[in-house]
Amino acid sequence: MATKITRDVLESFLNCTYKAHLKLAGQQDGRSEHQLLLADVNAEARERTTYVTQRQAVADAKVQFYLDVEGLPDPDRYYLIGLLVVEGESSRRHSFWADRPADEAAIWESFLG
Q1: What is the pLDDT of residues 43-89, one digit of tens each?
Q2: How far apart, in Å, are the Cα atoms of 19 and each of 13, 25, 34?
Q3: What is the dihedral of CA 22, 25, 31, 35, to 10 degrees?
Q4: Cα–Cα distances in Å, from 82 out to 26, 71, 91, 94?
Q5: What predicted TM-score, i.e. pTM, was given to this entire model?
Q6: Contact at 8 Å (CB) between 111 and 81?
Q7: Are 19 and 13 in contact (CB under 8 A)?
Q8: Distance separating alpha carbons of residues 56 and 38, to the nearest angstrom
Q9: For 88, left (φ over 0), alpha (ψ -120 to 50), or beta?
Q10: Which residue(s) pair with 67 in the sheet?
Q11: At what angle do helices 7-15 and 33-47 cross, to 10 degrees?
Q12: Domain chopping of the chain, boundaries
């Protein structure tokens, strides 16, 4: 019976430091399979990380705006613009969705208009 390799199994394998480091026949890279898999997991984690280079000082205002723009880097496409407007104790949310690349211009026009 075949065992399904799940994310938990893979993470357990990557976190185990006592396993033997086997090489495939003819493998030229000096890194072990453990090191290669760990590099892949670290690269994936870096892709999901948001980096802030400098926190900007902003004066308090009566109305606060929070903007979130989400997209996909490979096709250079934006599919969601979210805006939260906070005024005192009340807040309003605005979402602009693009289901297709052709809808992208329309969400920017709606957001800016």
Answers
A1: 777 777 776 778 778 777 889 899 998 888 777 777 899 999 999 89
A2: 8, 18, 9
A3: -50
A4: 51, 12, 13, 6
A5: 0.45
A6: yes
A7: yes
A8: 35
A9: left
A10: 83
A11: 120
A12: 7-47, 63-112
